[in-house]
Known about the structure:
Layout: H1 2-13, H2 21-50, H3 52-56, E1 60-65, H4 71-80, E2 83-96, E3 103-112, E4 123-124, H5 129-133, E5 141-145, H6 146-152, E6 159-162, E7 165-175, E8 189-193, E9 209-216, H7 223-233, E10 240-243, H8 249-287, H9 289-297, H10 302-334, H11 336-342, H12 353-377, H13 383-387, H14 398-419, H15 422-454, H16 463-472, H17 478-514, E11 518-523, H18 528-536, E12 541-557, E13 560-561, H19 562-566, E14 576-580, E15 589-593, E16 605-609, H20 610-616, E17 623-628, E18 631-642, E19 654-656, E20 667-674, H21 679-689, E21 694-697, H22 698-737, H23 739-751, H24 756-793, H25 802-822, H26 825-829, H27 832-839
Parallel strand pairs: 3-8, 5-7, 14-19, 16-18
Antiparallel strand pairs: 1-9, 1-10, 2-3, 2-6, 2-9, 4-7, 5-8, 6-7, 11-20, 11-21, 12-13, 12-14, 12-17, 12-20, 15-18, 16-19, 17-18
Helix pairs in contact: 1-10, 2-8, 2-10, 2-12, 2-22, 8-12, 8-15, 8-17, 8-22, 10-12, 12-14, 14-15, 15-16, 15-17, 15-24, 16-24, 17-22, 17-24, 17-25, 22-25, 23-27, 24-25
Amino acid sequence: MTGLAWRIARRELRGGLRGFRVFLLCLALGVAAIAAVGTVRAAIERGLSDQGAVLLGGDAQLEFTYRFATPEERAWMDARALDLSEIVDFRSMVVTGEGEAEDRALTQVKAVDDAYPLVGAVTLESGTLPEALAMKDGLPGGVMDKVLVDRLGLAPGDTFRLGLQEFRLGAVLLREPDSATGGFSLGPRTIVRTADLAQAGLIAPGTLYETEYRLTLPPATDLDALRAEAEAAFRDEGMRWQDRRRAAPGIERFVDRIGAFLILVGLAGLAVGGVGVSAAVRAYLDRKVATIATLRTLGAEGRLIFQTYLLQIGVLAGLGVLAGLVIGTVLPMAAAPWIGAALPFPVSFRPAAAPLAEAAFYGLVTAFLFTLWPLARTEGVRAAALYRGAGRGGHPRPVHWLAVAGLAAMLIGGAVAFSGTPELALGSAAGIVAALVVLWLAALGLRWIARHLARSRIARGRTGLRLALAAIGGPREEAASVVLSLGLGLSVLAAVGQIDANLRAAIDRDLPERAPSYFFVDIQNDQIDGFLGRVKDDPAVSRVESAPMLRGVVTQINDRDAREVAGEHWVVRGDRGITYAATPPENTTVIAGEWWPEDHTGDPEVSFAAEEAEEMGLKLGDTVTVNILGRDITATITSFRQVDFSTAGMGFVMTLNPAALAGAPHTHIATVYAETEAEAAILRDLSRAYPNITAIRVRDAIDRVTEALTAIGSATRWAAAVTLVTGFVVLIGAAAAGEGARVYESAILKTLGASRGRILASFALRSALMGAAAGLVAIAAGGMAGWAVMTFVMEADFAFEPVSALVIVAGGVLATLLAGLAFALRPLGVRPARILRADG
């Protein structure tokens, strides 16, 4: 039977692709979006892998916090490396000018030696790095990021200060080869020589700085063996290892997460395309009524008809998926120069099998999921019913119900497996399914309301409105296609708009009330009293908080490796801020356990942030080992306390009893809440009195975060735009499929005396009503999605944003108007006699 079905299918396919253009375009767009995102992600991952040594600055790196390597540690590295370079990384304030003309800005300082960079090259506006850093006219040189140079109004040859040391700007920095490994930075980069910082007064015991030792190794070096040897040798020294195989793990995690998220947004577009695919198949089968009837008359079983058209759909689905894969590969490759120039790390574009296979899987499963139902309904229809004009009917057999459920499970399971973030994938899948159900119910509700309004007083005497309502509430399924396809696309855009607006509103609304003006770090023990005296006596300062500050790495939990217990939780990734206190600090709320006695001198105890402890699976009585300055401190968790990091104020995950950290070099951190107009004077006075102190303006830090969120939002909107374009294609398909009915309707209305203007107004009104309905449902769905994200993910307040909502409704009306009117010209131009005579 399969052979016969294939022969019939092959002969019908010779007739061309008429009726399947929307099918192919919807499928190709959805697959192309997913393939493009996957191709870009693969290119970034390949670039990170291929250029690992350049990104890291060597084959391997040993990193220490708050200290330089000891002579023994340097000797160990020298014995195994072909070349070795030492880098010191810390934040500081760069100062220009004198007196009232003095200006300052936060910068991330990289102090280097003569060997830097071991791999790659620093790109400057002019000259070379050794020339730019050389001593000239008695001043050491430095290079600055162009953003910082422009911010301070400097030019090569001008001077600036770091701490107590004056430098000459030798050149403008355009790109560092190893910038991607530095992670998120609050300030632009400044590079100087480590030796030139000796008199700056910036690096002292307890100062927040890190040293990184980059090594180039012999080609045959076993990195796993060398890492094991290093960790065994420096296990108790607080050393962190990194090598060229994962030079930028933070970027890899970010790319994986945002890539998975964008692919899930792409799946929403594919779901919209699925609606179009289903509508195209239904329209195609309607046109094949005579063919199916003839086959049934000749003795063909329902199963043969089902197989025939399933094979046709399979071939066409393959063509659509192939077209999508080509588009999704060619477009990123064509845009590779622009993408590469926009990213601060290397990318390597070439076709990648994995993302293309993932996109093909999604496309094929979606195609069969949305076509199986209309195909299955033809199996139980008799020839006599078909000849009477009942083009589709009957209920699918249980096996088809099971097949649809299986395909849906396969699609969701694939999303979970491919994304690597099961919770996000399941949540997105549930949201798409829920949106489709809500939109389908809305379409049914729209038709029911339209039918009743067409008979009500509202439509009496309003012929155009009555005709439009009657058409929407009629038996044709145009309303369902429009609301489903356009509504889902608009829902994604509405959700993105609501989330973006609420994030910006939260920053603008809450920052002045809840966040401090400045964070001050690296306050030395002999400076804290003078610092507090200056800010507390200022009437413009409403609040000051300070605390001792150390940084440490959580290495073990209950004598097990911390990452084995807590996975990739942010607390165990990198070093964390730690403080100590004899009594609970002001505004501290202990929610479980008890604080230690004020004079406690026994075994170390720690109070842990409650929310983070719950996420890591910690309980009272557990032990946490923290490495601080090479010393392991194992403390017992004796209390949990509430810590609200969303205020941008002072908050520590871990607070220890003072005796546990006795003798450890440390500095202090402070937050100052002041009136805006007083901020400049406070910063000027403190910088002059204590040049080593670093001030971080919270508004500037929030702006950097906002920039990152804006970039993510832009990428999301582009992905959502593909969903909307697909929805518009479905609209065009629905309008094209209903053109024949509108031709007949127009002929009847003209015969009854209706003018072209009235008929056109009726067509336009029905399109506008369906678009408005889709937009209104999208606002509700997008608003609920935005509320869920802000409430449960961002843990922030949600307020409905009306401007983007109005734009969504207007967009829905405009889209349906354009699609509807594009296919209204032919019906308006037909002669009634010819149409009615042909139908008779």
